[in-house]
Design goal:
By secondary structure, this protein is mainly α. 88% of the residues lie in helices and 0% in strands.
Length: 65
């Protein structure tokens, strides 16, 4: 995973936490849900990228091209 992907995922996660917090404090359940969804989306992207990185490392370790 490149730096830009990591930064975008982290930004989405932080933005989601902020939305969720503001939603909690203001009683806005829709905003709170959007924040939770943003965080889940960032986590899913991160997990996918981790799997790709692991597969690439395994391939490289086995001498693949």
């Amino acid at each position: 995973m490149n730096f830009q992907d990591k930064a975008e995922n982290k930004f989405q996660e932080v933005a989601g936490k902020a939305k969720e917090f503001v939603g909690e404090k203001s009683g806005d359940q829709e905003l709170q849900g959007e924040g939770a969804a943003d965080q889940a989306g960032a986590g899913a992207k991160q997990a996918t990228e981790n799997v790709k990185d692991a597969a690439k490392n395994l391939k490289d370790g086995l001498g693949g091209n």
